[in-house]
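EI: anyone free to look at a 195-residue chain?
SC: sure, send it
EI:
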Amino acid sequence: MPELQFNPESHVYTLDGKTLPSVTTIIKEAGLIDTTWFTDGATTRGSYVHQATELLDKDDLDEASLDPALVPYVDAYKRFKADTGFYISGIEKRIHNATYGYAGTLDRVGKFPGDSIESIIDIKTGKPEKWHGLQLAAYRLCLGNELRKRFGLYLSDSGIYRLERYTDRQDIQVFLACLTIYKFKEATCSRQPKL
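SC: here you go
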């Protein structure tokens, strides 16, 4: 069985030598992501927060070595875990959808105490955006037909968190429309004559 590969520098997924578009690339190319606030600093911060929370969940984070700017985000994540008791069964899981031909990285999979339904969580260092529900719906499609709750976990520089549940049933259809637009644009661009 071919293994999904990911190149973090180019943010490219490949499966058996074939490049797969990422979930966020698909949504962005459909025009639903406003990149105005995607500064290099914010992107780098988000990457470091993801790394720090991953190391924390794997009991491998040296908190003394954390950049002071990251500490409030890690503190917010620790508060989320302590407050909710969320049991993590998957961390930074690379996934793909063979039917639709795309890939992504699911931040966390697990269950809240008392839940029989698994939840998927995407960790963010910005504010909630409507497209986050589409992103989580796309990840859910990669995991099969089993019902899963979808959450955005928003960590702030003030050390607090916000857990936002996404329940709009149209998110899957909107994501698939984005995918159709993405594929149309890719096919159209590849057929354009070179000048």
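EI: The chain has one domain: 4-191.
SC: 👍
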